[in-house]
Amino acid sequence: MLAQVSPWHVHAAQRMAAAPAHALTPPTRMEWSTHPGLGPGAEILGPHLRRKRILELGCGPGHNVAHLAKHHQARVTGVDLVGLQMRRARSHYGHIDGATFAAGHALHHLQATSQTFDAIYSVFGAVGLVAPELLLPATSRRLKPGGVLAFAVPHPARAGRHPTVDDRPREDYVTMPNHTRLPIARWEFDARRWAAHLARTGLSITSALELRHPRRDPWPTTLLITARKR
Ligand SMILES: C[S@@+](CC[C@H](N)C(=O)[O-])C[C@H]1O[C@@H](n2cnc3c(N)ncnc32)[C@H](O)[C@@H]1O
Question: pTM to 2 decimals?
Fold first, then answer.
């Protein structure tokens, strides 16, 4: 029997086959949604990011890692489940001082590291894709007191859906570069349920923003949550 390959690996493999990665200039803005320019930028991670230690959970090709390292002089590690994504991220941004990429499951990385961080974030990455009752306590343990957790997830009410009414994940799909779709499990909480989960791990929610492109989206598409370690 064939071992099941993660949809995220298939996604990265198709991307790499379509266009080999090359060195890129880091973007001038941090993006929390799929619409460039929508919503806040890096400022929600803290006012002074210079030399701060920051971790991204599920960084993909590393655009936000590169932005924070280049434009804020932060020391940023991007972690991604898919080794191929990390190869791609290093090809794009391996030349940027302060940007480091590590392959691995977000939960294993958090459990294995002894570092603590000023900020940890996820942009459609591991937060929402890994059981929150495991990922949030592991994340909170690696945050310094007063540290920030920020994460963007697909809005649970996008396209007329409804947030889950319990703590279980729902089936969602990842659309591949070749337009096929593969199933994944996603935790689709509203802000109140996220706040309750965060509170159990010593994190207080500080904002919950619903992002929606004013002309293109009839519904909010992104839920962006920030919390602070008590
Ligand atoms: C939709 S992409 C977002 C990538 C990136 N944050 C961005 O905004 O471009 C989701 C990423 O999360 C990664 N991922 C999924 N589950 C993960 C896990 N358990 N640990 C680490 N990364 C994970 C996938 O490999 C994929 O690169």
Answer: 0.97
